[in-house]
């Protein structure tokens, strides 16, 4: 079975990008204490410095997986942000549909030796011999789902804008590659800044991603209200229409 893990990867990256603005050191310490027994390593706990590193450790411990994201629900209850709630709900809808369909398709194609395939001629439907796959669900959370979501605090327009920017930056920086400098220039970032950023990150892994994120920090610091239009124009002019269309899907 081939399961498309891209959605899961994007969920974690977007979750981390948004939640990091709401998780200070005190909150992070509370989360580390909550999962202390699961992590079961003082050294590993000390090396958890942000939400991203916490999620990576919980993945290695097996409590966070593509079909088991109750950890994200628990963190979302602390963060209480509607954008994070939406990320989780959208992923659960997608995973239920796609993972269930894929596995059930696999079952329906299986040939069981010595057993004739039974068909319902009146309805022309195949009845699978194996049980349907159901993603793991935190029943305790599901029972209180409405109360959790209804308790989220309202998000201001400025906060929503920042969250949207974080999503866009996180998504396109991973794919920008060598085009980062050209797009940065089209966003009117000075050449001196571009050279400085390049010199700082050129020897690092995922250097283009880090470079573009730094360049966009400079761009967003100017508080440009037309950033969506400017960024899409810059991407298209730099022959990255694919990323322009991706931004368009996120912001509109």
From TrEMBL:
Transmembrane segments: none
Domain of life: Eukaryota
A Pfam family annotated for this UniProt entry: Death
Gene3D superfamilies per UniProt: Death Domain, Fas
Listed GO biological process terms: signal transduction
Residue intervals of the Death domain: 165-251
Official protein name in the record: Death domain-containing protein
């Amino acid at each position: 079975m081939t399961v498309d893990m891209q959605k899961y990867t994007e969920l974690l990256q977007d979750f981390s990008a948004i939640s990091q603005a709401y998780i200070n050191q005190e909150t992070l310490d509370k989360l580390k204490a909550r999962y202390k027994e699961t992590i079961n390593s003082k050294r590993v706990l000390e090396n958890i410095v942000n939400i991203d590193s916490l999620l990576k450790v919980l993945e290695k411990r097996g409590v966070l997986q593509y079909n088991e994201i109750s950890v994200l629900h628990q963190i979302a209850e602390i963060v209480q942000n509607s954008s994070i709630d939406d990320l989780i709900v959208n992923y659960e809808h997608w995973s239920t549909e796609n993972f269930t369909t894929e596995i059930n398709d696999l079952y329906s194609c299986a040939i069981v030796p010595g057993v004739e395939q039974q068909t319902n001629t009146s309805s022309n439907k195949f009845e699978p011999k194996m049980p349907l796959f159901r993603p793991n669900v935190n029943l305790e959370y599901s029972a209180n789902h409405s109360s959790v979501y209804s308790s989220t605090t309202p998000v201001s327009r400025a906060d929503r804008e920042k969250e949207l920017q974080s999503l866009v930056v996180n998504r396109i920086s991973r794919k920008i590659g060598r085009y980062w400098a050209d797009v940065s220039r089209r966003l009117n970032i000075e050449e001196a800044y571009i050279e400085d950023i390049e010199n700082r990150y050129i020897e690092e892994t995922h250097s283009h991603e880090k470079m573009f994120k730094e360049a966009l920090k400079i761009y967003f610091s100017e508080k440009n209200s037309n950033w969506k239009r400017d960024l899409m124009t810059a991407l298209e002019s730099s022959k990255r229409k694919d990323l322009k269309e991706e931004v368009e899907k996120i912001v509109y």
